Amino acid sequence: MSDLAWIDAALTSARPQALGALLRYFRDLDRAEEAFQEACLRALKHWPQNGPPRDPAAWLILVGRNAALDEVRRRSSEEPLPADELMSDQGDAETALAERLDSSHYRDDVLRLLFICCHPDLPATQQIALALRIVSGLSVKEIARAFLVSESAMEQRITRAKRRIAAADVPYETPGAVERAERLAAVAAMLYLLFNEGYSASGGDAHIRVPLCEEAIRLARLLLRLFPSEPEIMGLAALLLLQHARAPARLDAEGDIVLLEDQNRGLWDRKMIAEGLVLVEKGLRHRRPGPYQVQAAIAAVHARAARPEDTDWVEIDQLYAVLETLQPSPVVTLNRAVAVAKVRGPAVALAMIEPLAERLSGYFHFFGVKGALLMQIGRIEEARVAFDRAIALANTAAEAAHIRLHLDRLIKDSAAPGSPDLLRRGAGHQGAL
Amino acid sequence: MQYAILCYHDEADVGALTNEEDDALMAELAVVRQQLKHKLGPVARLMPTTAATTLRAGAEPLVIDGPFAETKEQLLGFYVIDCATLEEAIEAARLLMKPRMAAGLMSALEIRPISVFHPGRGGT
Q1: What does the pLDDT average to over B34-43?
Q2: pLDDT value of residue A422
């Protein structure tokens, strides 16, 4: 075994807790990051000889804090603290001390670390980039690659975002129940953005960026470990797992989008689905439904259907109706229309989405769904106009190619409008891709 | 004597494995299981503790989200194995440890003698 493999894994998983605690001590992100960096360097030096400490995060917190204090003391020529070699023997005393120092706080430490990335002034992409840098510890280069921008552009973006949060009031006090709930909601929203950035890339050639999805899942699981009784966090984790389980089937060999109904369900990741279904069930027991739980429940209906025709569209329609009341939005209504088309026919669905036209005039999926519904009821010319608009609004090459497929088919089938094959296609809602 | 080999890991480390790394680990472990097939009984991999629910005794038993105990490492799986001696069971655990270490997991494998074992018929 290489030392590096386990040390790297231990440092990555200890990072949020250790950095979060150091941030609480120093109340300064740069200093906390420097202290953590120093602690990691010392870990690389000592752990290969001494073996892993019993609690890597506690070790990093103590060593990082001492290193920083040492620096202060050295400057003021006071007595140095004991050498950190002493910390690396797995003495229970140190572990107990570290636990007393931290276990009462560390949930809130990690939450704070995530929360400072969610500053409302920061645009979504900067929130995500910052979280990947600070919480996940990815290098600027890795993040730049994930976002398909140059390293220097990403460096600038992150520096700007950091300056912004440094100027903002970072909440260091232990939060009350209401604040904690607010922070959790903000962090959950940010993780969902992070996932979506990977799930449906906002630009470029790659339609799915698996590492971003996996990182979002890792952080959602972390959040759930810290707050194990929060049904919405269960819902979030379940939603991400259930969506990501379909990743292997969502694109074909050419990188083109495969619709839910056409996906090879044998490629779906059963392990992730099983875990997602458990979390949906656990969340439901609390009887405190929220948007993530409902969306996860919708994804669960898809995951449970062995074949597309087994999908319980009535239940999906009902779940979207619940979501519309919890979180009214034209996009939710648009998604519901896809289910309504299955249950009550395309004409009803079309009537449902027509009032959304103004608010969704810049939304790719709106025109994708609209075109498909028009096609199904044989209004071919209008369908073509809608698809043209969708192509103009496509975010990725795969999205554009997918709509072009519809158009090609439309041209081919124009002799036989409304052919039955078209009835199954066109679902552009989130669950369908 | 039958032994349970209980697998403790930091589940954050296990959760951080990529699919490829996890597949590679599972493939390595399949080889070891093959080596041990004449003594090996049921084997289980457990979902993360976030999937766990705990029932606590009381006048009205309480249903709690999460695992029984919050610990640094979590019980994430177990093997049942039939060995003549403790030495032999430790040797089997050594084989099972290797792929885990290669995957960067600092695991602990607890070897616990079994006093009663009903293989049952449920499960797959």
Answers
A1: 95
A2: 37
Of residues A121, A119, A143, the one with CA closest to residue A132: A143
Is B123 a domain residue? no
Q: Does B16 sit within 8 Å of A1, measured CB to CB?
A: no
**Using alpha carbons only, what angle is made at residue A195 by residues A187 and B101, rounded to the nearest 5 degrees?**
95
Q: What total number of domains does chain B contain?
A: 1
Q: Which residues of B42-80 are buried (b: 16+ CB within 10 A; e: fewer)?
A: ebeeeebbbbbeeeeeeeeeeeebbbeeeeeebbbbbbb
> What is the spatial distance between Cα B77 and Cα A187, in angstroms, rounded to a whole number?
31
β-pairing, B53-56 vs B62-65, is antiparallel
Q: Would you give the DSSP letter of residue B38? A: T
What phi and psi, each to the nearest 5 degrees, are found at residue A305? -80, 115
CB-CB under 8 Å, A6 with B105: yes
Q: Which H/E stretch holds residue B53? A: strand B53-56
Q: What is the CATH number of the domain that holds B51?
A: 3.30.70.1060
Residue B124 lies in a domain: no
Count the neighbouring beta carbons within 10 Å of the beta carbon of residue A421. 10
pLDDT of A257 over the 60 cut: yes
In the chain, the amino acid numbered A213 is C
Task: Choose the closest CB to A9 out of B13, B65, B72.
Answer: B13
Is the ipTM higher than 0.85? The answer is yes
The predicted pLDDT at position A417 comes to 43
**Domain boundary assignment for chain A:** 3-104, 105-225, 351-432
Counted across chains A and B, CB pairs separated by less than 8 A come out at: 66
Q: Residue B38's domain spans which residues? A: 2-113
- Pairing between strand B74-82 and B40-45? antiparallel
B118 lies in some domain: no
Structure tokens at A185: 């909601």
Confirm if A181 and A210 have CB atoms less than 8 A apart: no
Chain B residues near residue A52 by CB distance under 8 angstroms: 106
pTM given for the model: 0.85
Q: Who wins on pLDDT, B71 or A93?
A: B71
* CB of B2 closer than 8 Å to CB of B114: yes
B71 contact A CB<8A: no
Calculate the alpha carbon distances from A201 to A15, A72, A195, A218, A398 in Å.
27, 45, 10, 19, 10
Is residue B65, in this structure, part of any structural domain at all?
yes
